[in-house]
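Researcher: Go.
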Amino acid sequence: MSAAIESAIFDLLGKVAPGKSVSPEDVAKAVDPAGWRRELGKVRPVAVGLARAGRLVILRHNKPADPEKFKGVWRMRLPGAEDQGASE
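Model: Structure:
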């Protein structure tokens, strides 16, 4: 996992209200504002690893998604009480 991406994810999530989410684009821009598009593809594998470890929730349509199967537009947030064992 990329330490810079992981750090950016948790830094951004620490700045949003509980239950709110951040996008992969937000994370990539935090890592490299000028070259964020190069970083974007690196965010997903880091987020999937964190979701597998239970440190992050991946969202699709604002609902928890299975980190192994999600497709399309996605976001991430910190786990909350509502996420206890709730993956689609």
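Model: The chain has three helices and three strands.
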